[in-house]
Amino acid sequence: MMKITIKILVLYAFLQIMCSDAKPASLNLSLHRRMDPISLKHIFHVKSYEEVPEYEIVHIRELPKSSDEETKILHLSAFGKDIHLHLRRSEDFDERLKTTKLFTAESSKNGIRFAEVFVEDNDSGTTYQDINLMAAVSVHQGVNGELQMVSLFTLISVLMLSVSFNDIWENQQLVNDNHRDKRRAVLDKVWPEVLLLVDYDTYTEHISYNLTETQIRRYYSAFLNGVDLRFKAFTDPQISLILAGIIISKDKNAAPYLENNKLSSPDDYAFNGEKALKDLSHYLYSAKGLPEYDLALLLTELDMCMEKENECVRHTAGLAYYRGACFVRESLGRVMKIGIVEDKGGFDGIIGATHEIGHLLGSLHDGDSQLDALSGPGAESCGFEEGFLMSYAENTETMFQWSECSLEQIKYFLNTEEASCLRNEPDNKNLLGGELPGTMLSLDEQCERNWATRACANDSRVCLQLHCYYDDGECVPLLPAAEGSVCGDSQICKDGRCVKNHVINNTILTEGPICNDNSTDMY
């Protein structure tokens, strides 16, 4: 068994806490019983009063601040400790959120209608972060002109007595489509523009957590940050992912590629991945009014399956067309620059998205030979069992890294004529960076988004495998915690390791966890 002690320090989100001369809150530990269910879930991430952990409401004092307003230094005392927050403004992240295009897709009598959403947020707040203490606050202008701070700062201590860890990881891909293979001069940088699609079920899940459209944009910007981080390993050429836009399906019929390929009830929470991918390729080919993109990923919380011996087997977490980036098959009315990845809203699909983009950019699974119809290096010399990003064989630090074979294959593809669209430098580069996913969702929240109740532990092992309690009390292993997640005293997850947080500096980091099956079947 595992004994867990959780303490939460609340800078209560519905209290107007001034950034100067704040008065001690005249509230006691019965505060949570005055909250409605939505507030209870938002602040404590629990569903009942009985589940609320120990918490403390504190007096906040702002120390003299710098004249440029780039930093805020706060002091508070809680749980017998003095805490100093050195909050630094994250202006670039705020600006990217304002420029990221958000579209809705809705079904109508005349087909699917796309519309750009212009979010009116006169005071979206200014984001400040303390990377070292993993604290984030948003400062707004109050109704009387005072500054109002909205935040939740969590301190968690866990005493581990015993726990067993089981290896669990599968993330498949499919596909092959032949195209020409002309080489060109070596380049030094590419900018893949990524379009993200969010299905209706995933959208409603975000809404159930009371997320606004601005917060949903923030989530997917941070999500792609985590994917982009993995591509920073490429230096010849450098790869910088660009968020081209986000499309949210506002009803089920707005995503016919999923709705038409769901299994029959009671299994209608699963869908046939191969058929959905093919239908998505036609759907995006016919879609009008979308931003330009080089590759697109559908992110869904639904359960993907693959047909095998007259059965749709649910062992697949991702699917993409090999060397599909930039590729449009005009004769068939299809785009091949697409993939599908399972993501339940807890950053669990980040590694899967990285894996599938790897396929789109020309990487096979480690251990596979190059297709007969294509030129270029294969991956025979890299063992699948070594567990790099393009295998998924092990829960080790290598699962965050590219094998030498993947590095070589992607470099080869990027220098072919087929990848020419990736070399177009965007006019307005929505470059990624700014927010750590681990600061957006705690370990408990990451578990909750995967339909569990809370994390089993928060020590260094979560960086390789997050374990979550489910309603039946079982502690189940998933995938790695989101990068930037707390894994110890002043430590956070980076590249599968628990490191002192000063190593991170201000780099945007993210990882994602999850999979629901112990199988290692491959497709």
TrEMBL record:
Zn(2+) binds at residues 355, 359, 365. The keyword Cytoplasm does not apply. One of its GO terms (molecular function) is metal ion binding. It comes from the Eukaryota. PROSITE patterns: ADAM_MEPRO (PS50215). Residues 190-426 form the Peptidase M12B domain. GO terms for biological process: membrane protein ectodomain proteolysis. SUPFAM superfamilies: Metalloproteases ('zincins'), catalytic domain (SSF55486). Residues 1-22 form the signal peptide. This is A disintegrin and metalloproteinase with like protein. The lineage of its organism: Eukaryota, Metazoa, Ecdysozoa, Arthropoda, Chelicerata.
